[in-house]
């Protein structure tokens, strides 16, 4: 029996995608080999990476002056590559000025890493209220190399409801946990990046969408593998790319297209999230700690109302355990924040959300 997997990542993949991958496991497309066994430079593999890129361009409406890169190292490596390529100086430690907005644990990590290579100004933070809201976005400083936000905050369950106006300063966003969840105007950004393991495919591939004029500014001391010009110049094939992950992303994108594209998926995501938030807002036991205006469609943390800490901890750990026994797995909140969290990415069917609500009703009774 397949479980409903509420993991924040790696997370559930659409069943039809897994079934298709299984059917093609030992003989992909009549090649007599698994995609895992193909040379990345072979005639069998070329159409696979090309299809993945063209589907992503089509579904996200990526303008032609942007490159799509398939890299490794996770979203976390982008925390380093972005400042190294856009802001680092001729010697380490002499970087340009950049703005970061601190909306959660990933945003904070990104800013801390950037401060090794750039002069980081964290212009706003929602840490004062445990990151349960998105702060007003201040204007960038003139001459900033870029302005970094985290569009969807996976751990605390917030999202930017409108984009900051950064004028001529390139807006850079970590969209690891919301890529393809709602329409996004790519032309408003300088760089978008996402680890695949939340909404796109298996772990091991990072998608970077970068405006061409932002490529080629890394100082010469930046290692070859950490330079956008290296990867952009070779079509993500400077070295062996994460071949199988790129293939799986292609299957997921095909699935999204068959559902009707990002608009159709967004409609489903809004329905799923509304169902769950409405339930939380009317529950006598559970509630959402996040301000309504900033609630994520993808990651929904919730806690119990018990006023005694020991009781709360007991209730929450019992909830996570009993839910898992009922086939609703990975509902524990992030280790740094506790409580519970339901991650309901594109691949989570509405029946999964309904099953969770049924379970919560039983738990409450
Ligand atoms: C998961 C996540 C990361 C970390 O991704 P890795 O691929 O593990 O490096 C960074 N940012 C956000 C918003 C995430 O959700």
Please explain how this structure is put together.
- The protein has helices spanning 15-23, 46-60, 74-86, 105-114, 228-233, 243-259, 261-282, 309-325, 350-364, and strands at residues 4-5, 66-71, 97-102, 119-125, 147-150, 152-153, 158-159, 171-174, 191-195, 206-211, 286-287, 299-304, 328-329, 340-343.
- The mean pLDDT is 97.
- The protein has 365 residues and is an alpha/beta fold.
- It has a seven-stranded mixed β-sheet with strand order 2-10-9-8-5-3-4. A three-stranded antiparallel β-sheet has the order 11-12-14.
- It binds pyridoxal-5'-phosphate (PLP).
Task: Give me a quick take on this structure.
With 365 residues, this protein is of the alpha/beta class. It is 34% helix and 16% strand. Pyridoxal-5'-phosphate binds at residues 9, 74-76, 106, 150, 154, 174, 176-177, 195, 198.
Number of strands: 14
Strand order of the largest sheet: 2-10-9-8-5-3-4
Assembly of the depicted chains: single chain
The gross shape turns out to be globular
Bound small-molecule species? pyridoxal-5'-phosphate
Spell the H/E element sequence.
Answer: EHHEHEHEEEEEEEHHHEEHEEH
Low-confidence stretches: none
Distance between the termini: 27 Å
Q: The biggest beta sheet, please?
A: 7 strands, mixed
What is the structural class? alpha/beta
Number of helices, where a helix is a run of at least 4 consecutive DSSP H or I residues: 9
Q: Portion of residues in helices?
A: 25-40%
Strand content: 15-25%
Average pLDDT figure: 97
């Amino acid at each position: 029996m397949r479980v409903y997997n509420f993991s924040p990542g790696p997370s559930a993949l659409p069943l039809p995608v897994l079934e298709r991958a299984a059917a093609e496991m030992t003989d992909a497309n009549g090649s007599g080999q698994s995609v895992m066994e193909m040379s990345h430079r072979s005639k069998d593999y070329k159409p696979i990476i090309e299809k993945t890129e063209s589907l992503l361009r089509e579904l996200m409406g990526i303008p032609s002056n942007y490159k799509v890169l398939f890299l490794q190292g996770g979203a976390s490596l982008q925390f380093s590559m972005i400042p190294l390529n856009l802001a680092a100086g001729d010697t380490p430690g002499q970087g340009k000025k950049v703005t970061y907005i601190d909306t959660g644990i990933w945003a904070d990590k990104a800013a801390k890493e950037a401060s090794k290579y750039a002069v980081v100004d964290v212009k706003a933070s929602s840490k004062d209220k445990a990151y349960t809201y998105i702060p007003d976005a201040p204007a960038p400083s003139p001459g900033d190399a870029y302005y970094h936000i985290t569009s969807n905050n996976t751990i605390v369950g917030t999202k930017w409801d409108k984009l900051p106006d950064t004028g001529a300063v390139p807006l850079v966003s970590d969209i690891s946990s919301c890529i393809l969840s709602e329409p996004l105007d790519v032309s408003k950004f300088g760089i978008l990046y996402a680890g695949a393991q939340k909404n796109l495919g298996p772990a091991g591939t990072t998608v970077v969408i970068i405006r061409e004029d932002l490529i080629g500014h890394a100082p010469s001391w930046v290692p070859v593998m950490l330079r956008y010009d290296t990867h952009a110049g070779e079509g993500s094939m400077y070295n062996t790319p994460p071949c199988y992950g790129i293939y799986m992303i292609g299957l997921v994108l095909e699935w999204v297209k068959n559902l009707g594209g990002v608009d159709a998926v967004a409609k489903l995501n809004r329905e799923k999230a509304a169902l769950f938030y409405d339930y939380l807002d009317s529950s006598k036991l559970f509630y959402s700690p996040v301000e309504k205006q900033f609630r994520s469609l993808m990651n929904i943390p919730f806690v119990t109302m018990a006023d005694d800490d020991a009781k709360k901890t007991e209730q929450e750990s019992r909830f996570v355990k009993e839910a898992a026994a009922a086939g609703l797995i990975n509902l524990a909140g992030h280790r740094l924040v506790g409580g519970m969290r339901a991650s309901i990415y594109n691949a989570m069917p509405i029946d999964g959300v309904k099953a969770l609500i049924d379970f919560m009703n039983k738990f409450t009774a």
